[in-house]
Amino acid sequence: MKLIGSYTSPFVRKISVILLEKGIVFEFVNDAPYGPDSQVSRHNPLGKVPTLIDDEQQAWFDSSIIAQFLELRGDAPAMLPQDDAWLALHIRQVERLADGVSDCASIIVREKLRAPEQQSTEVLTRHREKILRGLDQLEAIAAQGRLLNNGTLNLADIATGCMIGYINLRHVVPNWCVDRPALIKLAEQLFQRESFARTAPPAA
Ligand SMILES: N[C@@H](CCC(=O)N[C@@H](CS)C(=O)NCC(=O)O)C(=O)O
Known about the structure:
By secondary structure, this protein is an alpha+beta fold. Helices cover 53% and strands 7% of the residues.
């Protein structure tokens, strides 16, 4: 199994963490998707990472689909409850919420790479507001301890940890932790895991 990805992508980190937690052996193929030499579009027409190539050479893309593929393979531990489809769906929605915050953070990072006179204040403000609302909802969910931080690592925990790692790396919302104690607790616990330590992005 090959994982095509870049070291800084929160979505790639999400899949790397799942593979490590499940003990699935994989080869990491480093590919910077925005670079001129990227090969990822040979496997994924959208040209995005992560893209996973399975042992039958089938390409899987979009981290939530790859995560579902890995669950369907059945490798333990499961990252979603096996006996409660509704609970699993709620957890997947939280996963997508955390991914959505990562998407917004990535849009801000890309926008800030443009020349200052080409940057859109409207785009920056809009996506910053989405991030803040997303973080507030994730904080409330983490405080409840049912869908996040419930004692059994799940897909939503992993996506949230990778999102927090990314906004820390890119300094997108430097003071995100003010008044968000449940998310801090979750991040502290996740970052102690070997899977998170081994996938920490290089300093920007
Ligand atoms: N929804 C996708 C998002 C993946 C994504 O946006 N990846 C970025 C890197 S963080 C990428 O490959 N961007 C290249 C591009 O958009 O051309 C997922 O969860 O896998």
